[in-house]
Design a protein that fits this description.
Layout: H1 6-19, H2 36-46
Helix pairs in contact: 1-2
């Protein structure tokens, strides 16, 4: 999968967040600047966190 922008990463996080259920665990690993934080921000947005 290739993500071309921070917005695409955020949107992916939102889609992932919409599928999460209580007890789900996500492990993230990657180099600096890979988009982990933006992904988590999208997940948080889908779960109602601001």
């Amino acid at each position: 999968m290739k993500i071309a922008s921070a917005q695409e990463m955020f949107d992916l996080g939102k889609r992932m967040g919409a599928q999460l259920r209580a007890g789900d665990l996500i492990l993230l690993n990657g180099p600096l600047g890979a988009g982990k934080t933006v992904l988590v921000q999208g997940i948080g947005a889908a779960l109602g966190f601001t």
